C-alpha cells in the first residue's frame, strides 16, 4: 500500500504558476471492495532565480517632469510560487529616485521609479541605477538590471488618459480580433508632440501580449489568442500612451479584463469496471462498475442537468394590462412611441412572442418581434385628441396562447395656431368704421375685437394690446377682453378719424400673434356722418347711386317735417320743450354701446358672428346730431326710417329723423 515516486518531480513543469500543485489518483481495494481517492501536493522549493527580460533598461526622462512622477520598470519573472517567488525589488542609492513596489491582483510584484527630486539636465545629463529583484527563499535568490536614465528637454504636455482604469468582460470562446476595450488619451501639444502612440507597458507579462493585441494608433485592445476561463479568470493589463516628441511624454492606464465562463467542456464520465464479465449467478446488489462524472466548467455550466420537455401551458404576460401614451402633435412620422414588454416562462417556440394590432389602420404599426409601436403619420390635436387600440401578444406554441393589451394614445397640444380675428373681419376690401360721439366720457366702450384660437388651454388664452393708434391717449383696450374704451373724454378738437392697430397674442411657447385694424370715427355733424358712411361703401357697389338718393330723400323729408313743426307757433313751445326733454332721456339710452360679445362658444361651433349695423339719430337741432353703433332693435322713436346697405351683408346704417314731439304708436 506504499505510494512511491517513480521519477523526478518538477513542480514548475507540472503546474507552472498554479498553486497549490496537486496530483490526484484513485485506488481500488478488493475484498471488501472500496474506492479511495487521493491527492499528492507538490511543494515548491526555491530552485529558480528571478530573471529580468534584459540585462539593461534605458529611460528618457524630461527635466520638466514634476516630482511624484512614476516610471514603470520591467518586471522580473520567477517560476517558483509562494514565498519562493519574487517578493521585492531594491534600488541603488541616488538623490532623485525612490522605488515603489506594487502588487497585482494575482499576487505578483512589479516596481515603479518615483521621482522625488526634479532633474536638471544642465547639472547632470545621465543617471545610472541598479535594480535588484529578490525572492523570499532562504537564502534569497536575486537578479540585477542596469538602468540608464537620460535627462532630456521636456515635452510641454504629456498624454492624459480619460480614465485610469478600464474594465471589460470577454467570453472565453471569443474569436480572435474581437474588440475588448478602447483606451483614449489626449495630448495638448501640436504636431508630433501631440501625436499619440499606444503600447503595452514594459512590465506587461509575455502571456498577456500573446493573448491580446493593441492597435498603436487607435488604442483598440483586441483578442489575439485563445482565452480559457479554466486557466485564468482575470487579466490585469498595463498600457501606456506616448507622444512623438523629441522627449516623448508618457501616460499609463490599467485594463481589467474579466473572462466569462462558457459551457465549453463536456462532462467526462469515468467507468471503473470491477467484474467483467459478470457471473450469471451474481446476487442482486452486486457492484458491477463505478462511475465518476466531472465537468471543468464553473457554476451552472458544471452541474449535470436532467432536461424536462416543455409544454405550452403559459400565456404571454405583460407588465401592464393597459398603456397610456402622450404624444405631442405635429410629430415626425415613423417615430416609436411605446415598447410593449411581455414575457413567457415557456421554452423554445412556446416562448417566442409576436405582436400585432387587432385593429389594422394607417396611423399606427407595431414591430412583430419586439413590440415597438410606431406612429406612421403626423397627428393634429385640433383634429383628434385620443386614439384607442388593442395589441395582441401571441406565443409560437401549438395551439398558440395570446394576451390582449389596450393602448390609449393622447395627442397633447402645441402652440401651432395663431389667434384668428373674427371681428373686424380681416383681409376684406370693406372697412369697418365704429362711430363715437364728441363729448363721450372716459371709460365708454366703443367696440370690441373678437378673436379665437384653435389651440387648447394656455395656448388659446389671448391677450390684447394697443400696438398703434392715431392718438394713443384717446383709446385703450382690455388686456383679456379685447374691448376698446375711451381713455379720456372726447374733445371738439380731437381728430375725427382714428385708426387703431390691436396686437393679439396667445400665451403659448413660442408666442404666436396677429393684428387687427379698427377704424373709429368721431362724428359731430350729420353731414360728417353721412360722408363717412358714403365713404364706407365699396367703390364697385352698383347700388351706390340708389343709396345716395335714399339718403337725400330722408334729409329732405326730415327738413320738411322740421319746417312744419316750426309753423305750429309759440303756443306749442311748452309741449315742444317737454318732448325735447323726453327725447334727451331716450337718447341717453340709445347712445349705449352693446355689451361684451358673448358668442365665442357659438363661433367655435361654426356659427358666424352676429350682424352689426350703424344708426344715426338726427334731432331738430343738427348740432346735436349723434352717431352710435347698436345691435338691431326696433326704434322707440322712429317716425321714419330709411335703411341703406354698404356692401357687407349684415352691416346696416340707419338714419332716423326725429320730430319735435314723440310719435304715437299709430304713427
UniProtKB/TrEMBL annotation:
<keyword id="KW-0812">Transmembrane</keyword>
<feature type="domain" description="Cadherin">
    <location>
        <begin position="319"/>
        <end position="421"/>
    </location>
</feature>
<dbReference type="InterPro" id="IPR020894">
    <property type="entry name" value="Cadherin_CS"/>
</dbReference>
<feature type="domain" description="Cadherin">
    <location>
        <begin position="162"/>
        <end position="269"/>
    </location>
</feature>
<keyword id="KW-0472">Membrane</keyword>
<dbReference type="InterPro" id="IPR013164">
    <property type="entry name" value="Cadherin_N"/>
</dbReference>
<keyword id="KW-0732">Signal</keyword>
<keyword id="KW-1133">Transmembrane helix</keyword>
<dbReference type="InterPro" id="IPR050174">
    <property type="entry name" value="Protocadherin/Cadherin-CA"/>
</dbReference>
<dbReference type="Pfam" id="PF00028">
    <property type="entry name" value="Cadherin"/>
</dbReference>
<feature type="compositionally biased region" description="Polar residues">
    <location>
        <begin position="632"/>
        <end position="645"/>
    </location>
</feature>
<dbReference type="GO" id="GO:0005509">
    <property type="term" value="F:calcium ion binding"/>
</dbReference>
<dbReference type="InterPro" id="IPR015919">
    <property type="entry name" value="Cadherin-like_sf"/>
</dbReference>
<dbReference type="InterPro" id="IPR032455">
    <property type="entry name" value="Cadherin_C"/>
</dbReference>
<dbReference type="Pfam" id="PF16492">
    <property type="entry name" value="Cadherin_C_2"/>
</dbReference>
<feature type="domain" description="Cadherin">
    <location>
        <begin position="428"/>
        <end position="540"/>
    </location>
</feature>
<keyword id="KW-0130">Cell adhesion</keyword>
<feature type="region of interest" description="Disordered">
    <location>
        <begin position="631"/>
        <end position="650"/>
    </location>
</feature>
<feature type="domain" description="Cadherin">
    <location>
        <begin position="53"/>
        <end position="161"/>
    </location>
</feature>
<dbReference type="GO" id="GO:0005886">
    <property type="term" value="C:plasma membrane"/>
</dbReference>
<dbReference type="InterPro" id="IPR002126">
    <property type="entry name" value="Cadherin-like_dom"/>
</dbReference>
<dbReference type="GO" id="GO:0007156">
    <property type="term" value="P:homophilic cell adhesion via plasma membrane adhesion molecules"/>
</dbReference>
<keyword id="KW-1003">Cell membrane</keyword>
<feature type="transmembrane region" description="Helical">
    <location>
        <begin position="548"/>
        <end position="571"/>
    </location>
</feature>
<keyword id="KW-0677">Repeat</keyword>
<protein>
    <submittedName>
        <fullName>PCDGK protein</fullName>
    </submittedName>
</protein>
<keyword id="KW-0106">Calcium</keyword>
<keyword id="KW-0325">Glycoprotein</keyword>
<dbReference type="Pfam" id="PF08266">
    <property type="entry name" value="Cadherin_2"/>
</dbReference>
Amino acid at each position: 500500500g506504499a505510494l512511491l515516486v517513480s521519477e523526478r518531480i518538477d513542480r514548475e513543469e507540472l503546474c507552472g504558476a498554479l498553486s497549490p500543485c496537486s496530483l490526484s489518483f484513485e485506488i481500488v481495494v478488493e475484498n471488501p471492495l472500496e474506492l479511495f481517492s487521493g491527492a499528492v501536493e507538490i511543494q515548491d522549493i526555491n530552485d529558480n532565480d528571478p530573471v529580468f527580460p534584459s540585462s539593461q533598461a534605458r529611460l528618457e526622462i524630461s527635466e520638466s517632469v514634476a516630482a511624484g512622477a512614476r516610471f514603470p520598470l520591467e518586471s522580473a519573472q520567477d517560476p517558483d510560487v509562494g514565498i519562493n517567488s519574487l517578493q521585492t525589488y531594491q534600488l541603488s542609492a541616488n538623490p532623485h529616485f525612490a522605488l515603489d513596489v506594487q502588487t497585482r491582483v494575482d499576487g505578483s510584484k512589479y516596481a515603479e521609479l518615483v521621482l522625488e527630486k526634479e532633474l536638471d539636465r544642465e547639472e547632470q545629463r545621465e543617471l545610472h541605477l541598479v535594480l535588484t529583484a529578490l525572492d523570499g527563499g532562504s537564502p534569497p535568490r536575486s537578479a540585477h538590471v542596469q538602468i540608464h536614465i537620460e535627462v532630456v528637454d521636456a515635452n510641454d504636455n504629456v498624454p492624459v488618459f480619460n480614465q485610469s482604469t478600464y474594465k471589460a468582460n470577454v467570453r472565453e470562446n471569443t474569436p480572435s480580433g474581437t474588440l475588448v476595450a478602447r483606451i483614449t488619451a489626449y495630448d495638448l501639444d501640436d504636431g508630433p508632440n501631440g501625436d499619440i502612440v499606444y503600447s503595452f507597458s514594459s512590465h506587461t507579462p509575455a502571456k498577456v501580449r500573446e493573448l491580446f493585441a493593441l492597435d498603436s494608433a487607435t488604442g483598440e485592445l483586441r483578442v489575439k489568442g485563445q482565452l480559457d476561463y479554466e486557466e485564468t479568470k482575470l487579466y490585469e493589463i498595463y498600457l501606456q500612451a506616448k507622444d512623438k516628441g523629441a522627449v516623448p511624454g508618457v501616460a499609463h492606464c490599467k485594463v481589467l479584463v474579466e473572462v466569462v465562463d462558457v459551457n465549453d467542456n463536456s462532462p467526462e464520465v469515468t467507468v471503473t469496471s470491477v467484474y467483467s464479465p459478470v457471473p450469471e449467478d451474481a446476487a442482486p446488489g452486486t457492484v458491477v462498475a463505478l462511475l465518476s462524472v466531472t465537468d471543468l466548467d464553473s457554476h451552472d455550466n458544471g452541474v449535470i442537468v436532467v432536461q424536462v420537455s416543455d409544454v405550452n401551458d403559459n400565456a404571454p404576460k405583460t407588465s401592464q394590462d393597459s398603456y397610456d401614451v402622450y404624444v405631442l402633435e405635429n410629430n415626425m412620422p415613423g417615430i416609436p412611441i411605446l415598447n410593449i414588454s411581455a414575457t413567457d416562462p415557456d421554452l423554445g417556440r412556446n416562448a417566442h412572442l409576436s405582436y400585432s394590432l387587432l385593429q389594422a389602420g394607417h396611423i399606427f404599426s407595431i414591430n412583430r418581434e419586439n413590440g415597438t409601436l410606431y406612429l406612421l403619420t403626423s397627428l393634429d390635436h385640433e383634429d383628434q385628441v385620443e386614439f384607442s387600440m388593442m395589441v395582441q401578444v401571441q406565443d409560437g406554441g401549438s395551439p398558440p396562447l395570446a394576451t390582449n393589451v389596450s393602448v390609449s394614445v393622447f395627442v397633447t397640444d402645441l402652440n401651432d395656431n395663431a389667434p384668428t380675428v373674427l371681428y373686424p373681419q380681416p383681409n376684406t376690401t370693406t372697412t369697418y368704421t365704429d362711430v363715437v360721439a364728441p363729448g363721450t366720457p372716459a371709460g365708454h366702450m366703443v367696440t370690441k375685437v373678437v378673436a379665437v384660437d384653435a389651440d387648447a388651454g394656455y395656448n388659446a388664452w389671448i391677450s390684447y394690446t394697443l400696438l398703434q393708434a392715431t392718438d394713443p391717449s384717446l383709446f385703450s383696450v382690455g388686456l383679456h377682453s379685447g374691448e376698446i374704451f375711451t381713455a379720456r373724454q372726447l374733445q371738439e378738437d380731437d381728430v375725427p378719424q382714428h385708426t387703431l392697430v390691436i396686437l393679439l397674442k396667445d400665451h403659448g411657447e413660442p408666442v404666436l400673434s396677429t393684428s387687427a385694424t379698427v377704424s373709429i370715427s368721431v362724428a359731430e355733424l350729420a353731414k360728417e356722418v353721412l360722408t363717412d358712411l358714403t365713404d364706407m361703401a365699396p367703390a364697385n357697389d352698383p347700388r351706390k347711386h340708389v343709396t345716395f338718393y335714399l339718403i337725400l330723400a330722408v334729409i329732405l323729408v326730415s327738413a320738411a317735417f322740421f319746417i312744419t313743426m316750426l309753423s305750429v307757433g309759440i303756443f306749442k313751445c311748452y309741449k315742444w320743450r317737454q318732448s325735447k326733454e323726453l327725447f334727451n332721456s331716450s337718447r341717453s339710452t340709445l347712445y349705449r354701446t352693446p355689451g361684451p360679445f358673448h358668442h365665442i362658444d357659438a363661433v367655435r361651433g361654426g356659427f358666424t358672428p352676429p350682424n352689426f349695423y350703424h344708426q344715426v339719430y338726427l334731432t331738430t337741432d343738427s348740432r346735436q346730431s349723434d352717431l352710435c353703433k347698436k345691435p338691431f332693435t326696433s326704434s322707440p322713436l322712429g317716425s321714419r326710417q330709411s335703411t341703406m346697405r354698404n356692401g357687407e351683408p349684415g352691416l346696416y346704417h340707419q338714419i332716423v329723423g326725429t320730430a319735435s314731439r314723440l310719435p304715437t304708436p299709430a304713427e
